[in-house]
Amino acid sequence: MAFSHSFEYFRPGTLAEALSLLDQYKGDARLLAGGTDLAVHIKENMATPPVVIDVKRVTDFPGSRVSPKALYLNASTTFSDIVNHADLRKAYPMLWEAARSVASVGIRNRATLAGNICSAVPSLDVAPALLCYDAIVHVASSSGTREISIHDWFISPRKTACLGTEIMLGISITAPAVKHSGIYLKQGRYRGEDLAQAGLGVLITSDLQYRLAYCAVGPIPFRARAIEAVLNGKVLTAELISSAKAMVQDTVHPITDIRSSKEYRLHICEVMLERGLKAVEQRLNGAEFDSAEILGG
Fold first, then answer.
1. Which of 36, 61, 266, 276 lies at a 20 to 30 A Cα distance from 77?
2. What three-state secondary structure class fits 73?
3. The pLDDT value given to residue 76
């Protein structure tokens, strides 16, 4: 891949070295992990950083941990790491399904979860899962570490709450204390390597609490809290689902672009909500099925 402009390139081996470089270049540096976004943006002159810091060889990120009650995925975790983790698939099916839907196998082998959420694109597949699981993003700077709720992470398209002198260490999730299940639905133009026209994450607990999150139908991924409030504490019925669907038009804010019209996105968001609610209830009751079949296509 040929680049049209020059930049300084560093490959630190430790977190301390990487943070020192970020301090030295005062926000002018860009971090490179998998490189599936940044390398393309540099090649196409969409990004012209004077400094690139490659963190793939940083060896002292905190280790990843997965259990039914909680997980921590460090900054070097790729989407293939998630897809190939059997325990994660069982305990956090929505996150697993979202990871599986990202791009192609080749991209998933390189692209990291950290780099993906730092890209903050509106169509971010993993965002609905992280929002439904109330994830925490862990970041570090030379002055210490801090935790950022995923609900405060996305500021605007391609902008996050992570400062230019900070590095994302990883992301953590604490599972709901009661029995629960989740699902991620993605509508694209075709099966395979495509960005979402719309994405929806749905989580339900045994005490009838609902969490819903959309991507690709607004400037940033978001929780549909008004719809959640209508559903919470209630058994799903045709009338309840119909009431929830009636709120979608005022909840999502899609645009027309090369992948879809605004009108189609509004329609498919209603379809996804109905099918997602029915499917996640079935999963809570023990049903097993491939979420990729729910929307067809």
1. 276
2. strand
3. 96
